Amino acid sequence: MDGQDAALILEQARTMVDPVLRAAIESLPGSMRRVALYHFGWEHADGSPAAGNAGKAIRPALVLTAAAALGGRREAASRAAAAVELVHNFTLLHDDVMDRDTTRRHRPTAWTVFGDADAILAGDALQALALKLLTEDPHPASATAAARLASCVIELCEGQHADTAMEKRGPGEVTLDECLAMAEAKTGALLGCACALGALYAGGSAEDVEAMDAFGREAGLAFQLIDDVIGIWGDPSRTGKPAGADLVARKKSLPVVAALASGTPAATELAELYAVPYDEAQEGALERTVLAVERAGGRDWAQLQAADRMARAIHELSRAVPDPEAAGGLLSLAEFVTRRTT
Amino acid sequence: MDGQDAALILEQARTMVDPVLRAAIESLPGSMRRVALYHFGWEHADGSPAAGNAGKAIRPALVLTAAAALGGRREAASRAAAAVELVHNFTLLHDDVMDRDTTRRHRPTAWTVFGDADAILAGDALQALALKLLTEDPHPASATAAARLASCVIELCEGQHADTAMEKRGPGEVTLDECLAMAEAKTGALLGCACALGALYAGGSAEDVEAMDAFGREAGLAFQLIDDVIGIWGDPSRTGKPAGADLVARKKSLPVVAALASGTPAATELAELYAVPYDEAQEGALERTVLAVERAGGRDWAQLQAADRMARAIHELSRAVPDPEAAGGLLSLAEFVTRRTT
């Protein structure tokens, strides 16, 4: 099973992609380089070097592993992998500005340190850098990959818009279908694109590319469902977030929307709780909310739905990569991202 | 002189590029399409159709006319022209958010109508759309053009950063060189890139492409210098802005920074005036500020500098296009954008 272990795949991806990523960011003009190096965890706010904590490299690992699964060379896809990671981080920079989020990867977000303008500009520059990396890549698939990544950016923007717009509406005004479509655009699209780019770089057929995209999308939805479960029932000592953080913020995450749509008495109770802001002075308010989501079937639904999405992902993967040995790495990655509750 | 007249060239560029631009924008998901159609003047805020007032199409006209000057077909470069216009408008959307500007092309800016988040997302989507248009273009120059446009976006971001950072500093802390470098990055870079893309699409040599870029950059600087002159001495009935608007806002425009750096008694007076916010209750305060910039030589410097930049632009153009007949269209455009004081 050498090379099939997710932790090892992720570590190898970091090792291969970080130099490309770092060189690309070092090529930026001073102001944007500084924001980007801070955001990626390579510098402290004062510009001194930091150990680096740029996330788990799941997207670059998907690009490289998808390329290898279709018989391509990992190394040949390293620029594509870096480009996907740049796009991911451009959206994080902008999302944090829009959502006024103050913490990212256990550190103050870039806009809280450098201001809105520089965080927006650094995000703009990272998007441009991603497309520049791809369009300057002499690989024959690079132009097609660049066009696909640009289309994906548009879908990510639509996902973020839907997320922002949904949070402004009342708890009863959001349907489960809307919520799933938002999660697919916001999370599934880029995981799908990462796998599709790997397939393109391996010279895969149009069918392979679409099957790989579908694999990544379905795995991405499974990931989002599990992430939403963790946002309610996750162990604070492991997640780094306070217990029930999503419920305290009255977030319309997938288990909540499923619970609200269940037509049960617990759904009515949950709707009443969600109609007013969380009040920590009220004894047991959080526990009652957690229990209402659970009794209305939100947790069970999310876990079943995640399992169903994983099954679909595996089916799509088997279309593009029938050999289980060759598909092993991608399966490990998909399992890794959805395994975090156990 | 048929086809050499700037107004005619601009009108023809609009006619050729608008359908490409419009189709690209119509392909966006609903939320971003709405913001973009509003920003381009094709829809009112309520979504009803509008006559359209998307600016003068100078950048698309430069792409098409540069291509034609080097023997290329205008039509073949229409996607590249639309891509440059999309990038320009993506930066306008984001700059307006950062600068809190409330008026653009005589209408409320997009963020005042749709909120910061949707204006940022629409800008992000327009950047992606620009790169998508180019990378999906089957033209042999499209990948090189896309990489060049992506590099240009990074330079535009740096220019906007420098502009924002400069406005926060004291009037005596900004040098003329910094101010010129900012204007080159913020305005010159995209005009240069437009001409370079035209050259690339015409199959021009590397030297032609660089000379065309330099032509556009120098013409862009001349344009910015004249624009800054208009911002102080322009006729309000023609500019649509109140007289001396840039001085009222204490803007460190090029004539102001040149005046401050002149070492004259008028420079000292100007520095004192700029040290405190404009107070309209103070009789004659604006007139005194205008006069101080003039006496310190700010107006003369800007006009001489603009003429010098135009001379350099014409020299660069003659390197790429020695035949004056072939260069006529680009000369007309360069003169058009710098002619607006007369």
Automatic annotation (TrEMBL), chains A, B:
Pfam families the UniProt entry points to: polyprenyl_synt
Keyword Magnesium: yes
Entry keywords, A to Z: Magnesium, Metal-binding, Transferase
InterPro entries: Isoprenoid_synthase_dom_sf, Polyprenyl_synt, Polyprenyl_synt_CS
A GO molecular-function annotation: metal ion binding
One GO biological process term: isoprenoid biosynthetic process
Family under the similarity heading: Belongs to the FPP/GGPP synthase family.
Protein name: Polyprenyl synthetase
